[in-house]
Design a protein that fits this description.
- With about 325 residues, the chain is α/β, with parallel strands linked by helices.
- It is about 25% helix and about 25% strand.
- It folds into three domains: about 1-40 and about 165-270, FAD/NAD(P)-binding domain (3-Layer(bba) Sandwich), CATH 3.50.50; about 45-150, FAD/NAD(P)-binding domain; about 275-315, no CATH class.
- The protein has helices at about 55, 85-95, 200-220, 225-240, 255-270, 275-290, and strands at about 1-5, 15-20, 30-35, 35-40, 45, 60-65, 75-85, 100-105, 120-125, 125-130, 135, 140-145, 145-150, 155, 170, 175, 180, 185, 190-195, 300, 310.
- The protein is globular, with a radius of gyration of 23 Å.
- It starts with a strand and ends in a 5-residue tail after the last strand.
Amino acid sequence: MSVDPLDENQNSKWCRWSVRYQQDGCQEQQEEFDAVIVCNGHYLVPNYPEIPGLKEHYKGKQLHSHYYRDPEDHKGTKNAIVWGFGPSGRDIMLDLSPSCQKIYLCHKGERSKSEFPPNCEELLNLSHVNENGDFVTSSGDVIKDVELLVACTDYHYDFPFFSKKVDLKNENKRVMFNLYKHMFYIDHPTLSFVGIPLTIAPFPVMHQQCGYIARVISGSVNLPTTEEMWEDTVKDRKQRESENEPEKYFHKLANKQFEYNDMLASLSGLPRNPPIIEKLYLYGRMFRSSYIMTYKDMEFVKIDDEHFKVLKTIEDC
């Protein structure tokens, strides 16, 4: 598959696109489109941070969370390391715990206040692997006889179908600084993206993104000028710099996601998401870090678009 802006329109903001694709068992086809919306996600190409000594000295099994499937595949493992404490790290640790004698959860974030399974231990981030094949943490703890390393260390943005004519400024495959509102390719905004932001409740965000894109493509609303889109994007980047946020988190929304959703609704002229979405998200988040093992067992019932009732509290789980 390949996606290219048409040559005759390279200097036009509203260029058309040539798309070559091939379905299973069919011949390659090429068509032209007025707009392209990229929805391929960003959970396909794993990010493997370097651990000094890993390649030279570690002889055990290692895999990225992307390839993790079944705890039974690792049954009988003596010592395992789950590297990273995002959603995947937490879930895989819990899923693996019955299959392994011991699991070490290693990460660079704040220490968890939650209870863990009895065979799971939280340590600081991995520093290196010594010549004996032992893992050493940043605090000097040594983990011996490791048979399994599961890296829960995020992903790269990857768009192999674009030609060099599309310069996304995808620095280290972790961030793209030329997307207006994390969506529109500023040079040619008939190319847009859904689902780029990180640390979000995905579907409410994508719902508003799709609405805004649809309104722009249909001509119902207008985007700002190219200069204004650049100014807005640079302003966002500088604001994040002033908050000492690392560049690799440029697309991270977290607490800003609901303000972002409302902003997109305002720009598109479409209804905002129901307030209950934010309320439920924030309520569940209160317990996520302190009750890793049970917070997903809470139960709720929707009363209306603003209110919900807790049927099963964290104390009942």
